[in-house]
Design brief:
Elements lengths: L9 H12 L5 H5 L4 E6 L2 E7 L5 E4 L1
Protein name: Hemin uptake protein HemP
InterPro entries: Hemin_uptake_protein_HemP
Organism: Sulfurirhabdus autotrophica
Length: about 60
């Protein structure tokens, strides 16, 4: 049963709440035409890759 004040499903409401709390980037924006990028976190480097199947893999 949906809230009478909103037409959003619980999943849509949760997603909207997360979007307000976090920065949201599309993979197209992050990768800029490439299939891998490097993320530096606490002095360590990680590689985020797009696989041939379109999945994301993060490796150290």
């Amino acid at each position: 049963m949906q809230n009478s004040r909103s037409n959003k499903t619980p999943q849509e409401s949760t997603q909207a709440s997360l979007d307000r709390q976090h920065h949201v980037f599309t993979s197209e924006t992050l990768f800029r035409g490439t299939n891998a990028l490097v993320i530096e976190h606490k002095g360590e480097r990680y590689v985020l890759r797009i696989t041939r199947n379109g999945k994301l893999i993060l490796t150290k």
